[in-house]
Structure formats: C-alpha cells, structure tokens
Amino acid sequence: MSTVALVPAAGRGERLGFGMPKAFVPVRGTALLAHAVRGLLDAGCVRHVVVAAPPAEVAATRLLLEAAGLPALVVAGGADRTASVGLALRHALQVIPDTRVVLVHDAARAFTPASVIQAVVTAVEAGARAVIPVLPMADTVKQVDAAGAVLATPDRACLRVVQTPQGFDAATLVAAYALADSATDDAGLVEKLGIAVTTVPGHPYAMKVTTPFDLAIAEAVLAAQEGQ
Ligand SMILES: Nc1ccn([C@@H]2O[C@H](COP(=O)(O)OP(=O)(O)OP(=O)(O)O)[C@@H](O)[C@H]2O)c(=O)n1
Ligand SMILES: C[C@](O)(CO)[C@H](O)COP(=O)(O)O
C-alpha cells in the first residue's frame, strides 16, 4: 500500500509578481517546487509524488525535477487549484493502483517540516479519513459585509489557520472529488460529504508563499533550516 503526495504547482503566482509560475521561483537558488518535493520525499513516509504543473511547462517541470534528482510524475494542471488536484489524483490512481493514503500539498508551502508531514500520514494510517494541519489564530478576526462594515467577531478560540499537506484515505478523497464541486482546500470538499475532518498541529514554517513579503520570510525560514 502506497502513500502518494499530490503537489498542485500549476498556479501563475500573480500575487508574487515574478513574471513566472510561482513553483519555479528560486529560494536560495532552488525552485520552490524542488524544495517542496524534496521535503515530501525526505520525510520518509511518502512513496510517490505527482506534480500538477502549469500546462505549458510540463516538460520544463520534468527537467527541473530530474536535474534536482527528485523522482516525481508530472501532469498538466487545470484552471484552478481544485482542477489541478483532480487531474493529479486521477493520474495517481491510474499509475499507482495500490494508493492507500493521499496527501495534497501546495508547492507554495515548500518548507513544511517533516514532523508535520509525518503527523498527517500517521493520523490517516491510524484510521482518520481526512486530516489537516492547523495553527491557532494570533489576530482577532471580524466578519464583515460587502461594504466592509463589521457584522460579528467570531470567537477566535474556535478558529484555526489551515495548512498543507492535507491527508486522506484514498477512497475519501476520490469521493470528495467526484462531487465536481470547488473549495479553497481539499478538506472543504470532504466536509461537503459530511465526513469528519480531524486536525494535527501545523507549524509556522509551513507558511504559504503568496506575496513578496512571504518570499522574504521563506528565505529566512530556509536559512534557519539549513542552520545558517
Ligand atoms: N490553477 C492552479 C492554481 C493554483 N495551483 C497551486 O495551488 C497552490 C496554492 O495556490 P496559490 O498560492 O494561490 O498559487 P497561485 O495560484 O500561483 O497564486 P496567485 O493567485 O497569486 O496567482 C500553489 O502551489 C499553486 O501552484 C494549481 O496547482 N493550479
Ligand atoms: C489549501 C490552502 O493552502 C489551505 O490554506 C489554501 O486554501 C489555498 O488557497 P489559495 O487561494 O489557492 O492560495
């Protein structure tokens, strides 16, 4: 039985503004995607990686991963994150039929510690159908209307910031994607099936690189991980 990680990496990175897909943007000389795939493989609990690449960059993505010595399958991604994950999932099930646990991990969360990846896999192997890493909210959060007027202040003790990798038993993720619906994370689709989603502690280093500010933080995170 295999644990397979799907890596949606087909985004354009518009908010980062590098003029290239975000997955190719270097951090200390290595593309974000390569950092993300290496992190998954080095965690020791992921057997196969399937990357959803920008459709025009499939060959370039294969070359990038080969040059970095990272074994991964590469498929063309879709118009949004959900479509990219769906395409990678379909390919994984075709070529790795004994897939038992599926992780879905943003290329943009390239510095997620191995301990988080391992905790997610362990929880799914222990019987959870859907597992997500989360952090508590540091800020107060307001619900607002379209004009920005405050409607409510949710109790932040009940709120969590959600990271990846999110882990699923394969049948659960397949059922969620059969809904042909959309959500901002994969667990959101599982929730629509009424299936319980459980949480494990996330980590600040699993931050998503979205903006130039995040990229500066990522450089510091990698320097810390490399001990320099
Ligand atoms: N069509 C898409 C859009 C996003 N993603 C991936 O989903 C993850 C989270 O998306 P996000 O951080 O929003 O990336 P982008 O879509 O590239 O960002 P932007 O909205 O700034 O263009 C990223 O690893 C991104 O490559 C994807 O695989 N396919
Ligand atoms: C999946 C995710 O990273 C969890 O926080 C997030 O929802 C992705 O959102 P984005 O709009 O694709 O950046």
Write a structural description.
With 228 residues, this protein is an alpha/beta fold. The chain has one domain (2-225): Alpha-Beta Complex (Spore Coat Polysaccharide Biosynthesis Protein SpsA, Chain A). It is 34% helix and 22% strand. It has helices at residues 32-42, 58-67, 81-95, 114-125, 170-177, 186-192, 212-225; strands at residues 2-8, 26-27, 30-31, 48-53, 73-76, 99-104, 130-136, 143-144, 150-152, 160-162, 166-169, 198-201. Strands 1, 4, 5, 6, 7, 10, 11 and 12 form an eight-stranded mixed beta sheet that branches. It is globular.
Strand content bin: 15-25%
Overall geometry: globular
Secondary structure class reads: alpha/beta
The CATH top-level class label: Alpha Beta
CATH topology: Spore Coat Polysaccharide Biosynthesis Protein SpsA, Chain A
User: What ligands does this structure carry?
Assistant: cytidine-5'-triphosphate, the ligand C[C@](O)(CO)[C@H](O)COP(=O)(O)O
Which value, in Å, is the CA radius of gyration?
17 Å
Q: Separation of termini?
A: 38 Å
Low-pLDDT residue spans: none
Number of helices: 7
Q: Could you state the order of secondary-structure elements as H and E?
A: EEEHEHEHEHEEEEEHHEH
Number of strands: 12
* CATH superfamily (homologous) name: Spore Coat Polysaccharide Biosynthesis Protein SpsA, Chain A
What about the largest sheet?
8 strands, mixed
How many separate domains make up the residues? 1
Which second-level CATH architecture applies? Answer: Alpha-Beta Complex
Q: What's the rounded overall pLDDT mean?
A: 97
In helices, the fraction of residues equals 25-40%
